[in-house]
Amino acid sequence: MAFPGDRQAMNKNMLVKTIQTMNQHLPTRRIDLMQLLAMEKPGIKGKDNTFFIMDKVELDLISKSLPRFLWSRLRLPMLIEMSPDFGNGAARVQGEPEVELVSKILGKERPHEKQIIIYLPEVRELRRKLPTTTQYAFITNLRDK
């Protein structure tokens, strides 16, 4: 006989495993823009061992959009975090250089926080402009409300 607490724990475990599976494409580590610009074939390896090549035209666009002092702090691919916690159709991008870049690329006013919430039309525009240097990351808050 399963108790309600057991069932809730099983559901959380299943959700965690599902999200881990959905995030298999994410890199084991992200590389800063400075290093990527110096590479002959810029790219990263995902957790699933696939190699993602980053387009040099995109890297050039990014380097022209950011002050040089942020190049070593911007880690790519930039993660677009998808979660129901941000609201319907919303995503988050975190990090000072990342927020600066997203604001420039989307023509938005830069928030003073180190994160920016963007909505589906903006997510699509960001992915259209930076398809090889951005990736979706699926996250959720499993704490009890």
Model description:
The protein has helices at residues 4-22, 33-38, 56-65, 96-106, 120-129; strands at residues 31-32, 43-45, 51-53, 75-76, 78-82, 90-94, 115-119, 134-138. It is globular. With 145 residues, the protein is α+β, with helices and mostly antiparallel strands. The chain has one domain (4-138). The relative contact order is 0.17. It is built from five helices and eight strands, in the order αβαββαβββαβαβ.
Name some characteristics of this structure.
alpha+beta; two-stranded antiparallel ribbon; 8 strands; 39% helix
Strand order of the largest sheet: 7-6-5-8
Helix percent reads 25-40%
How would you classify the helix and strand content by structural class?
alpha+beta
N-to-C span: 26 Å
Radius of gyration: 17 Å
Q: Would you count the extended β strands for me? A: 8
Report strand %.
15-25%
Largest sheet: 4 strands, mixed
- Overall mean confidence score, pLDDT: 88
Provide the low-confidence segments as ranges: none
The number of distinct structural domains comes to 1
- Can you write the helix and strand succession as a string? HEHEEHEEEHEHE
Oligomer: single chain
